[in-house]
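User: Structure tokens for this complex, please. No commentary.
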Amino acid sequence: MKILVCISKTPDTTSKIAFKNGNTQFEDAGVQWIINPYDEWYALIRAIELKEKNPTATIHLISVGGADVDPILRKAFALGGDEGYRVDTDNSDSYYIASQIAAIATQNQYDLIFTGKETIDYNGSSIGGTLAELLNLPFISLATKFELEGQTATVTREIDGGEEVATVQLPLVVSCAKGVAEQRIPNMRGIMAARTKPLKVVAPVAVEALTSVVNYELRPTKTGVKMVAADNVAELVRLLHEEAKVI
Amino acid sequence: MSVLIFLDQADGQIKKSAYELLSYGSSIAKQKGIAAEAVVLGNVSTDLAALGKYGVQKVYIVDGAGFQHVDAQVYAAAVSDVATQVGASIVVFSHNQTGKAVAPRVAARLKAGYVSGACALPDFSNGFVVKKTVFSGKAFANVQIHTPIVVIALNPNSYQIQEADGVAIVAPLSIAVAPASIQVTKVNKVSGEIPLAEADIVVSGGRGLKGPENWGIIEDLASSLHAATACSRPVADAHWRPHHEHVGQTGFQIAPNLYIAIGISGAIQHLAGVNRSKVIVVINKDPEAPFFKAADYGIVGDAFEIVPQLTAAIKKLG
Ligand SMILES: Cc1cc2nc3c(=O)[nH]c(=O)nc-3n(C[C@H](O)[C@H](O)[C@H](O)COP(=O)(O)OP(=O)(O)OC[C@H]3O[C@@H](n4cnc5c(N)ncnc54)[C@H](O)[C@@H]3O)c2cc1C
Ligand SMILES: Nc1ncnc2c1ncn2[C@@H]1O[C@H](COP(=O)(O)O)[C@@H](O)[C@H]1O
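Assistant:
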């Protein structure tokens, strides 16, 4: 069985968000890059668990991005994974990124492709679905549990107001949310092994980006909190009713 | 040329988010001077002609048993076939669970530029630019779409529902529906609760509540406001509350009209999931809790004393 895990890099969750060059680019000075939490904690760890049960399985990692992604891929290797691809190009358009992943997936014919539910910086929630369409595969979005029995996957996924359990045959694309696996810390052996795992840097295939970011804006900060005394709860209710008009 | 609005349904009813989307899609159509049309997959008991009130001229229904559960492949094929058949140039979805499964596939099929998490009407002054939330609500990006056909997924609770007079034409469309590859074997709906994604008011508890046995005061407050309940991540991790209530950067991202945070410190990762709320109320015994900086109203005090009083005062409001 061949599994592909899609890895993206995001700023550490505590990073200060700021922009440069006339608000056209993210200010990355001093920013610590991490593996997107959904990709690491859920997608990658579940793939590793599947391999632990079935040692003949192989796990490939892929990331579409510049050379600054390499340390992120090495970290992912330290957790697990056998081989990695980095498609050497930087772009935020979901069709463009998915097309790059699709090109590698078409060469290697994976049984299972995991993505994270979304990147915590671009918040697209779009690569998995786009990729599934390009490969003409079934797509399970927002999976919270993933079990495999032969070629049949049993997946629990979020739906509005609850969840749904579904079965589907491989090959397929799954976007992973909380619940699919538990976060792990890489061990020393993993960190040593990560150094020598093959990471292939490949050129992008020619596709158009269908969208591009013009500029960014910060969310305006709140102008100041109105404090209400603890012995005057009725005043809070009045403010919410008459001033904010939300109750 | 038209705007095609995808109406999401659950249990035979059009979802609340779909009304917001109707208003949004119709407003885009007005901006562009083109028709606003909607599409429903499968049977619903909602009065579709009455949706004209929200500005659509026509509602297409695609009949078929294959739409009972969302199979992204089946849904996407049907919606893109409809879009092509009726000549839609802009297709809009809600950025909810169904939208996240289906919209990117539709965009790829139509080779349309796709912007998800949109939070405002497009700006046509310089091409086709859509504003979306990025960095988990901490910022916005203005994204230019370069293709003749575009697909947009709108963040729930980010556009005002507008009602006027109007009746829509209801038109059945016949589309060949592919067989589903996903077999749904079980549906667990949280019955009697208001889904977080659709709630106007959310009451949320953190570690300050000390343990699951104390959640009664949260639930009472929520029920007095017809609100959904939520929690911080450590609360879900400790299994005090179910995982689907966890909000934040790594949980649900919500944007209700009112978010009441009780015994939650306001860590940056928590704020990332709730900072799109219109009004934020914080109740915390520590005056230095960072959450107060992100709040509109605050009370410094013990949740176990304040919250029951708050519930009582709200009940008095009637
Ligand atoms: C990568 C990453 C992702 C994360 N994602 C999320 C996420 O999605 N969501 C999330 O919530 N967290 C997330 N976290 C965790 C986050 O950093 C905080 O640890 C967490 O939000 C704290 O939860 P809390 O506010 O409930 O608990 P605490 O920080 O322990 O705060 C409890 C608060 O309750 C107050 N309190 C205590 N007793 C009372 C009382 N009797 N009455 C009133 N107030 C009282 C205290 O003053 C305190 O402010 C993430 C962390 C990381 C590193
Ligand atoms: N540049 C990228 N390279 C590889 N995988 C990516 C990239 N961007 C996003 N992904 C994957 O797609 C998922 C969803 O991303 P998005 O649609 O951008 O929110 C992420 O969690 C990753 O698994």
